[in-house]
Specification:
Layout lengths: L1 E8 L2 E6 L2 E6 L12 E3 L6 H20 L2
Antiparallel strand pairs: 1-2, 1-4, 2-3
């Protein structure tokens, strides 16, 4: 997916992605990013982190259930 930095408003960059404008914190942009720059945007699920989080929550729920 690609986005284009349209403009900056305060602490946010307005990024155009598929004709939709998204406010994105400037501090999270690559250093030196400026208006008109094209961004490569990748979204993927971190399977390992998701699994570990689910296991942690399940463990906490089991501990709570066993306290009753």
């Amino acid at each position: 997916m690609k986005g284009i930095i349209d403009r900056f408003e305060g602490e946010y960059a307005v990024i155009n992605i598929n004709d939709k404008h998204i406010d994105f914190p400037k501090e999270l942009l690559p250093e030196g990013a400026s208006e008109g720059d094209h961004l490569k945007i990748t979204l993927e699920i971190d399977q390992e982190s998701t699994r570990a989080s689910k296991e942690r929550v399940e463990s906490l729920l089991n501990k709570l259930k066993n306290k009753r």
